[in-house]
Amino acid sequence: TNTHQLLLQMLKAIHFDLGDTLLDFEPMDTRARFRRAARLTYDDLTAKGHATPEFERYTRSYYRSVKWAYLWAKLSRKEFNSLDLLRKFHRKMHLPESDELLRELSWLWYAPVMQHTRVEEDLKPTLAAMRDAGLRLGVISNTFVPGFVHDRHLELTGLLEFFPVRVYSSAVGYRKP
Length: 177
Fold this sequence. Notes:
- Helix content is 57%, strand content 10%.
- The longest helix has 22 residues, at 55-76.
- It has 177 residues and is mainly α.
- Strand 4 (136-141), helix 7 and strand 5 form a beta-alpha-beta unit.
- It starts with a helix and ends in a 5-residue tail after the last helix.
């Protein structure tokens, strides 16, 4: 229609939120997901031969760290990056701090959440139509999860190609209004 064409001529770009917009997060027990992630990361560390604290101590300590960092982020409107938090946690627990290991562990911490997300069936064709109409597409998201983890999730769902611009609060240090 003419209105639709006029609107497309006026618009230059569209920015999307990530959670519950592009990726639908199903209802989940957050503590159970956290515990599952703790088990994945803990098992990965022990399988690689790293000396680890007792599992319950490992889980409780990191849970407290994340909980307090998240609370502070909400109150201050400044974001934390869970990769930085994980590095501090590893230092405190005398665990290895190599970038490669921490990046993979960041993915494992997120993996149980990814298993509880879905993408609407018509999302990819809709995004393709927007892109093909000349609109620039981007993501702006409040998240403490490192951008490379979300990028990997977007890649696995076939959405990354639509978003050449991605801004994550974990990278810029501030939450969007």
